[in-house]
Each structure stands twice: as C-alpha cells, then as structure tokens.
C-alpha cells in the first residue's frame, strides 16, 4: 500500500471521530438544558403598597409558575434585584415602567405611578403676626412678624400680585375698599404661609350742616306760574331712571372659561389680575386646592410654568352680584405644590 493511501485512510477516521465527539457534546448540552428548562408562559406579578408615594415602601411579588430566577428592573436607574419577592422605594414622583424577566426568557411589564410625598403642615413653622379687623382707605396699616428664627419676609396685602414688603415690620396704605387678605411667607417657605383678612372701609363723606336759612319774604302765590299743556316733570323722570340700592353685578364667568384662564396663567400669558373683576377686586380670597386652604393669589403664583391639569372645579358666588366668594379645585399633583 502506498504512503498516500495510508494518510487518506488515517484522515478519514479522524474526521469521523471528530463528528462523533461534536455530536455527543451537543446532545449532552441539549439534554442538560431540556432537563433544567422551566416554562413561563404566563408571567404575572403583583404590586402592593399602603400608598404609592415618594419614600413609601412598595412590595413586588412574582406569581409565575415554574419560575426559577428573576430580574427586577424598576425603571429608576437603581440596581436590578433577583428575588421572587422584593421591596422597593422610589425617590421621585412620576410614572415608572417596572419590568420582570423570568427564567431569562419571559418578561412582564407594569406602569407604577408614584405621587409626591404627602406634605404635613408643621404649625410651629407658620408665620405669626397680628392684624386688626378693619381699617379705612388712606390710613396706614402697620404689622410686625413675631416668628422665631425668621430671617426673610414676603408681605402681600391683597391689592396686587407683587410682594409689597420684605421687612420684618411692614406698613401699607390701602387705596380701595373691600375685604383684603394679608399673607406672610418667612424664610422662603411658601408651604407654610399665614393668611389673615382685614376689612378696608371706604372714606366716610362728611355732611355739611345747615346753620342758617335765609330768604326773602314772599306772599303766598307770588312767583307761581301755571304749567303749559303737555308739560312733563323732568325731575320725576330722573327719579324713575335712578338705580336703586342693588348690589353691583360683575361679569359671570363659567367653569370652563375659568379653567382656560388658569391655564393661561400657568403658561405665563396672564396673571391673577385677570380675575380681579370676577372676585369683586379681591384676588387674594381663600380657596381650596386638593383639600388644602390657600389664597387665590398664591395659587396663581405657584402654577406659573407648571403643567396644570384640573379634574374638577366648583365656583361659589354671591347671590345677585356674581361676585366669587371662593373656589374649590381638584387637580393632578404638581411638583412642589399642593
């Protein structure tokens, strides 16, 4: 037998053995994977929490049959967790897509909405000041803050949207009558704002007393002239046309138009003064937003440059005048407020 034929036979056997070895290895791997394979046709997990808010503990539990391993991704850039049941805390409000990967194959996803942290008013942080019940237009109102550890002040006296004073002791002269709301913010903490009301009275007009009546003596009937035919008493006509003492009627604004104007305020296209006529001049009246008391003026300041979504609104008016007394608003939570 020649040398070339011997080499060919040897190579043929080597190739055959190589194929046999590869086949056995592949079969072993397949058998191992088949033995350890876990199905996960219906991936399902539950989410439970006392409240879905920032800082609250939330429990995630997988209920998938034949699940062997898990990978939880909470959508907030935190580390992946690998247990069947995990606890998680979200540090910011918003919507998060929580993904669960089971057995490295099957996946389920749920959206979890986290609300802002529930704010509890600390009464010890509320500004302290006193104000008298009434004052007359043109008189000087003096107020003083008595809050402990206060270093900055923002006084608003209810006639404009601007801050009227930034001193501990403030003075103000009202130019228009009406019920005004005074608000004070100290140390920049707008969540702890104290508001008080003062009734601004109009200036009383002094009546001149008649000390003496002088005149000439006339005989009865002197100077009296007969009225011509067709004469009408113009003074009587004026009396008929004169308005009675009825309350001043302000323009009526509907709920949808009110919301549209608030959206323009949130987009910085209007300010609280756009509502002045509807509030009979007092845009600093108390309103209720998501169950919390605030003033309309402060509410307009807070919603500027924020995405406003009002769910419901109720406007309470004075009978006969359309003057708005107060408003209750239900809205989606906005970052940093209410």
UniProtKB/TrEMBL annotation:
What Pfam families does the record point to?
PKD_4 (PF18911)
Q: Where is this region: Disordered?
A: 224-246
Has UniProt tagged this entry with the keyword Nucleotide-binding? no
Keyword Membrane carried by entry:
yes
Residue ranges annotated for the PKD domain, each copy included: 62-104, 147-200
User: InterPro entries attached here?
Assistant: Ig-like_fold, PKD/Chitinase_dom, PKD_dom, PKD_dom_sf
**Which keywords does this Swiss-Prot/TrEMBL entry list?**
Membrane, Transmembrane, Transmembrane helix
Q: Where are the transmembrane segments?
A: 15-34
Q: What is this protein called?
A: PKD domain-containing protein
Taxonomic source organism: Bizionia paragorgiae
């Amino acid at each position: 037998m020649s040398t070339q034929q011997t080499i060919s036979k040897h190579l043929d056997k080597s190739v055959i053995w190589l194929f046999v070895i590869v086949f056995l290895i592949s079969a072993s791997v397949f058998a191992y994977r088949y033995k350890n394979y876990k199905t996960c046709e219906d991936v399902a997990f539950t989410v439970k929490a006392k409240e879905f808010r920032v800082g609250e503990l939330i429990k995630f539990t997988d209920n998938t049959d034949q699940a062997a391993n898990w990978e939880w991704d909470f959508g907030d850039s935190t580390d992946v967790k690998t247990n069947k049941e995990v606890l998680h805390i979200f540090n910011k409000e918003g919507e998060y897509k929580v993904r669960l990967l089971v057995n490295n194959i099957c996946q389920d996803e749920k959206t979890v909405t986290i609300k802002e942290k529930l704010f509890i008013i600390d009464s010890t942080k509320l500004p302290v000041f006193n104000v008298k019940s009434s004052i007359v237009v043109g008189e000087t109102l003096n107020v003083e803050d008595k809050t402990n550890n206060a270093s900055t002040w923002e006084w608003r006296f209810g006639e404009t949207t601007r801050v009227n004073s930034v001193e501990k002791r403030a003075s103000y002269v009202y130019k228009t009558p009406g019920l005004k709301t005074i608000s004070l913010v100290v140390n920049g903490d707008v969540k702890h704002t104290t508001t008080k009301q003062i009734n601004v009275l109009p200036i009383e007009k002094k009546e001149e007393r008649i000390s003496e009546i002088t005149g000439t003596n006339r005989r009865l009937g002197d100077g009296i002239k007969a009225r011509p035919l067709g004469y009408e008493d113009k003074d009587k006509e004026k009396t008929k046309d004169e308005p009675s003492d009825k309350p001043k009627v302000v323009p009526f604004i509907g709920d949808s138009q009110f919301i549209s104007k608030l959206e323009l305020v949130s987009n910085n296209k209007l300010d609280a003064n756009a509502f002045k006529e509807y509030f009979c001049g007092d845009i600093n009246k108390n309103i209720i937003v998501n169950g919390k008391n605030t003033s309309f003026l402060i509410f307009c300041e807070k919603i500027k440059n924020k995405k406003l979504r009002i769910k419901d609104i109720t406007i309470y008016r004075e009978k006969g005048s359309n003057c708005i007394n107060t408003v209750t608003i239900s809205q989606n939570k906005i970052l940093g407020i209410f």
